Amino acid sequence: MVQLVTRGIKISVKTTFEGTLYRNYNVEYAFGYQISIENKSKDTVQLYARHWNVLDALSTTQEVSGEGVVGLKPILHPGESHTYKSGCMLSSPFGAMSGYYYMINLNNSKTFKVNIPSFKLSAPFAIN
């Protein structure tokens, strides 16, 4: 598990290898990740968008941006957390992801970025 705290918001990430899939005569590798967002600040915050950089070891980085996380824009009061699961497909058994969340402090209406720690994606059979 990797963790990072930005402005009182703690992000924790766990990854899993989900298996391989054959699509259009190509092998793809499925990875899952679980993210916990914990509000350790004194303010109420809301996550309203996210930005990901997905690196596949055999190709370039793909950028993915959008509103919320898995269709939600969670509001976190001090001490609360939100956990969700998602995943990605890679064309190689190795990769990495990093990014950030856009959040708003609901106490003062100021927006800020919360960094997501960089984490590795690797299929167990491909590790020496």
Topology:
Elements: E1 2-6, E2 9-23, E3 26-39, E4 45-56, E5 61-67, E6 75-76, E7 81-90, E8 94-105, E9 110-122
Antiparallel strand pairs: 1-2, 2-3, 3-7, 4-5, 4-6, 4-8, 8-9
Q: Would you write up a description of this structure?
A:
The chain has no helices and nine strands. It is an all-beta fold. The protein has a single domain, classed as Immunoglobulin-like (Sandwich). The strands form two sheets. Strands 4, 5, 6, 8 and 9 form a five-stranded antiparallel β-sheet that branches. The model has no long low-confidence stretch (mean pLDDT 95).
**Secondary structural class:** mainly beta
Helix content: under 10%
- Give a quick account of the main beta sheet: strands, pairing sense, barrel closure: 5 strands, antiparallel
Total beta strands: 9
Query: What's the CATH class, please?
Result: Mainly Beta
User: What's the domain count?
Assistant: 1
Supply the CATH superfamily name. ApaG domain
The CATH architecture category equals Sandwich
Protein name: Co2+/Mg2+ efflux protein ApaG
Domain ApaG: 3-128
Pfam family, one: DUF525
InterPro entries: ApaG-like, ApaG_domain, ApaG_sf
